[in-house]
Amino acid sequence: MKVFRSLLGVVLALAAAIAIAQPYPSKPIRIVVAYPPGGGTDILARLVGKYLNDSIKQSVVIENRAGANGGIGLDFVAKSPADGYTLLAIAAGPLNDDNLNLFSAVTLFAAPAYLLVVNPSVNAGTLKEFIALAKAQPGKLAYGSTGGGAASHLSAELFKAMAGIDMLHVPYKGVGNAVTDLLGGQVQVMVAPTQAVVSHVKSGKLRALGVTGTKRSPSVPDVPTVAESGVPGYEAVGWFGLMAPAATPREIVLTLNREINRILQLPDVKARLLELGAEPATTTPEQFLEFIRSDNAKWAKLIKERGIVVEKSQ
Fold this sequence. Notes:
Order of helices and strands: HEHEHEEEHEHEHEHEEHHH
Number of helices: 10
CATH topology of the largest domain: D-Maltodextrin-Binding Protein, domain 2
CATH superfamily of the largest domain: Bordetella uptake gene, domain 1
Largest sheet: 5 strands, mixed
Strand content: 15-25%
Shape: globular
Mean pLDDT: 90
């Protein structure tokens, strides 16, 4: 029995050594999107995943695990092996001081401005007209978001505070669900990722009233910023990026970081991102982590002042 155990130990040690010696990646990679299909995170993850699939010669599978303001996807990836084969595509909002240590930052995809869009049934052709309409009907207009504390929620709350209006908040599991109801008129307004709604704006199914950044979006150059349309000083951007489970080997994180940053700078990818209103970003893992912490600190003040209930994602 002792001999058997010794042999078994040797076999397991050899198997582990062989696994470690294999170059990364040596099998398919799964990117978990913490939201339903059709949202900004899903669109960018699939775009990056397609090119990553081609460059590493391994399958890159996109898997949607939505719910709890991104919490279901976060929890799944946090508990996955830290071997670089299960990754998390995530947007601004769910990562916070309570759960950030469960992940290793890989890289930022983009940090684009959002679009404030309305259903065409809303009787407002400009942002000033919309603000006047909302003031005349306090609490009557409903806006969709991807959950309490998500970027789409906080951006709308900041707009409410600075414009002096009141609207009803309707949370959804993801951007795709919220946009579907916005198109159907169940909610009237949303601050949404440009890439998730720009096609509907161009087709006339939605009306864009403002860009949430400090400059106009190249994808909809005729749409003014919220700041220049009657809410001076307003600025809100979202972000999308890639995380790995904590304790993922540094060399694997750096490999993914280098390859994805290279993909983001490919002419075809840059053109597609700009078309979607999302200028590509390139960061080191450390820069991305600092970016997340800085963004969280920015919104902490608004959450406290407005008494916003943040849906727990972990």
